[in-house]
Amino acid sequence: MLKLDWLVEQRIRDAIERGELDALPGAGQPLVLDDDPLIPEDLRLAYRILKNAGYAPPEVRYLREIAELRRSIAQAPDAHSRSKALTRLSMLMAYLDARTGGGRTLDDPRYTERLVSRFDREAAANPRDDDDHA
Questions:
Q1: Distance from C-alpha of 113 to C-alpha of 1, rounded to nearest angstrom
Q2: How far, in Å, CA of 118 to CA of 113, rounded?
């Protein structure tokens, strides 16, 4: 065990003995782990840190655009507009599919809508002054 690990463990034990950790919010309750199982395990910690800092992974921006493209395709005024949106949609889906190893079900619009809605709800609950991060 590294000296730093030992020191941290010792300080935690001391705090427990003094009772400083007894009245923490959520004590005795199970942890709510909202990690997305579709995010590769080696990226989860980095994504959690970014999320807690108010930043989103680039995939969120692409998923939002995919959701918007799907809506615009349904409401496209002409075949040219629809074709252009379909091309961009295909490119984004292929990019995300390659980036995630094909593990996401991006071809299911319900998945994309749920993911974007979930992120939007979390962003609304934790507003930031600068919205240039997503």
A1: 45
A2: 8
- Whole-model pTM: value is 0.42
Rounded distance, CA 91 to CA 133, Å? 22
DSSP state of 24: -
Yes or no: say if 103 and 96 are a contact pair by the CB < 8 Å rule.
Answer: no
Sign of the C-alpha dihedral, residues 131, 59, 108, 68?
Answer: positive
115, 63 Cβ separation under 8 angstroms? yes
Among 50, 89, 82, smallest CA distance to 68 is for 89
Cβ atoms of 129 and 54 within 8 Å: the answer is no
- 134: tokens are 């997503």
- For residue 98, pLDDT over 50 is answered with yes
